[in-house]
Amino acid sequence: MFKIISLVVLSVISLHLQAQSFESVVSKVKGSVVGIGVHDPLGAPKNTLQGTGFAVGDGKHIVTNFHVVERALDAESMQKRVVFVGQGERPDVLEAEIVITDPAHDLAVLKINKKVAPFKLAETKRLPDGREVAFTGFPIGAVLGLYPATHRGYIAASTPVVTPSANAQQLSIEMIKRMKEPFVVYQLDATAYPGNSGSPVYDVKTGEIVAIINKVFVTQSKESALSAPSGISYAIPVEYLQRLLQELND
């Protein structure tokens, strides 16, 4: 009886310590997560959040998805690419410059003039199915302010993916090659939303980046991603980001 009670007590203590550890990881992570958007001095609202990003390297380089920043800015209305830093109703709005992109792997790196606490990138080895991960970002934008939300799940599979063009006329040699040689992404058993694009996926124990959220599996229409989420999300393994950052530094 005493042994059974002791095991129960130890199990409860272990779970409590794990919870505390994850709470501390999330608390630290939040300071490295930023919003990606556009400032339009003639618009209403003037600032629009389009996705999530996170700081790496020297803290002035911000990673996000290419599809978050690929839309051209309106020069006539003097739009600017911006990064939202901080939390709450009045985050800092910093002008950002796109310094390098990797459309094939849906990655982009921006630069700002203020240092943000950077993430540490994990080793580039492929993670096994069942590995527990979490991601933090802005799933429903910034309607009430900049408040990062954290979701937890696990890697369900490593699966090949391609990005087909809207029609055959848009096919390039690079796109055709990619369709023949799809790259592998993580399929996550976790619910992400459109605003999570570019969110850092990290190890729940270390807080190191292992992937970047880039897609949500939609079962019905695009609008149903919010009302009826599938619970299936996709993320780009960190190895592709490592390559892009190496290219930037060369």
From TrEMBL:
Tagged with keyword Glycoprotein: no
Protein name according to UniProt: Peptidase S1
Top-rank taxon, per record: Bacteria
InterPro entries xref list: Peptidase_S1_PA, Peptidase_S1_PA_chymotrypsin
Source species: Lacimicrobium alkaliphilum
Annotated signal sequence range: 1-19
Keywords recorded for this protein, A-Z: Signal
Record SUPFAM superfamilies: Trypsin-like serine proteases (SSF50494)
Entry-linked PANTHER family: PROTEASE DO-LIKE 5, CHLOROPLASTIC (PTHR43019:SF23), SERINE ENDOPROTEASE DEGS (PTHR43019)
